[in-house]
User: Which sequence fits this backbone?
């Protein structure tokens, strides 16, 4: 399985990132924030927090906007509590969906289509800076479009 990642050359510390995303063919995707490269003996691996944008294959789990620790421990902030039930229907598969991520200090906040989603605190400040990336997760299918990408440094 191969993941595809389009990322900034610059590393960011405190910022607000916004974009719109749309699925043409269902697939797993997300926005990487404060990502970095972990050098290993036989390859380089990208690690860090990912704002998840879930595909329909997840059978309505509705965790878009949650924060996943890519190659560093799994879910940091899954949207599985009863108060997150609203997120099951926040994505509109027929049109563009707005993703907003605010990272300041060790606090990561996300919104999907204006609805607050994750509020994760990186208690050990393990991800103080890094690049921003757009990810298309490897799999059998997936065509994802992006537009109106904006980064505002704080």
Assistant:
């Amino acid at each position: 399985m191969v993941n595809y990642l389009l990322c900034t050359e610059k590393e960011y510390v405190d910022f607000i990132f916004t974009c719109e995303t749309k699925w043409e063919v269902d697939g797993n995707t997300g926005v990487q924030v404060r990502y970095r490269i972990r050098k290993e003996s036989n390859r380089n691996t990208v690690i860090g927090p990912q704002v998840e944008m879930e595909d329909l294959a997840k059978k309505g789990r509705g965790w878009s906007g949650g924060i996943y620790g890519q190659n560093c421990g799994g879910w940091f902030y899954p949207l599985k509590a009863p108060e997150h039930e609203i997120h099951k229907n926040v994505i509109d598969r027929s049109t563009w969906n707005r993703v907003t991520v605010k990272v300041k200090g060790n606090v990561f906040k996300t919104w999907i289509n204006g609805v607050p989603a994750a509020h994760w605190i990186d208690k050990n400040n393990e991800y103080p800076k890094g690049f921003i990336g757009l990810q298309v997760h490897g799999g059998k299918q997936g065509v994802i479009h992006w537009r109106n990408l904006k980064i505002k440094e704080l």
About this structure: The two ends are 36 Å apart (CA to CA). Residues 77 and 84 are 11 Å apart (CA to CA). DSSP finds no helices and eleven strands in the chain. The mean pLDDT is 87.
